[in-house]
Amino acid sequence: MRLQVSALSDHHGVAHAFFTRAAPVEERGLLARDIGVSADGFVGLKQVHSPDVVTVEAPWADEARPRGDALVTRRRGIALAIATADCGPVLFYDARAGVIGAAHAGWRGALAGVLEATIASMEALGARRGDIVAALGPTISAAHYEVGPELVAAFREADPAHERFFTPNAAGRAQFDLPGFIGARLDAAGIAAFEDIARCTYAEPEHFHSYRRHTHRPEPGHGRLISAIALTD
């Protein structure tokens, strides 16, 4: 029902989960209980593929979700939740400062700086980037992420070095390594540690939802995966 990584589970004071498709998004109370908070403390966003970060001081009603693509807090009893279906769910923790974060990192958000903005917002709450660990949950892999030349050009224009995350294929297009790009951005940001769970949403239909797989072969029950992190006592 849920997956974890040692980068976060080895630390005290935090609970996290990368939920599989066996955990329906609609079962908010079940997901909240599984991570140790009340249903009212399970907060998410209206995600828009932006670099915008919301600092959470108190829970909000689901219908009042703000727009953005990352959340940070130092409040206990609040689970920061991100929804994905191929994009990268990234969870952050600074054990020394007691600050957590969660980011939705698709190619648009990652290129626009949502990961760096999350780290900066954590620092505003007292975190230090040299103490932050981050973990990437199930994400579409390069083997299944074919993109057109316009995306390669957009990344090249932002930084010619980004071209290394694209591998030309026989169809005259390219395979994009989103997990590799996310890891490189976090490494360049100077955080303490990064762990990639290395699970592909597209390649494992029995475990994960995938928007791209659904467009290739429509399947029943298509939805989104939830990833969440919360501070514990």
Automatic annotation (TrEMBL):
This is Purine nucleoside phosphorylase. InterPro entries: Cu_polyphenol_OxRdtase, Cu_polyphenol_OxRdtase_sf, Cytotoxic_necrot_fac-like_cat. CDD domains: YfiH. Keywords: Hydrolase, Metal-binding, Transferase, Zinc. The keyword Cell division does not apply. It comes from Saliniramus fredricksonii. The keyword Metal-binding applies. One of its GO terms (molecular function) is hydrolase activity. It catalyses: adenosine + phosphate = alpha-D-ribose 1-phosphate + adenine; S-methyl-5'-thioadenosine + phosphate = 5-(methylsulfanyl)-alpha-D-ribose 1-phosphate + adenine; adenosine + H2O + H(+) = inosine + NH4(+); inosine + phosphate = alpha-D-ribose 1-phosphate + hypoxanthine. Belongs to the purine nucleoside phosphorylase YfiH/LACC1 family. NCBIfam families: peptidoglycan editing factor PgeF (TIGR00726).
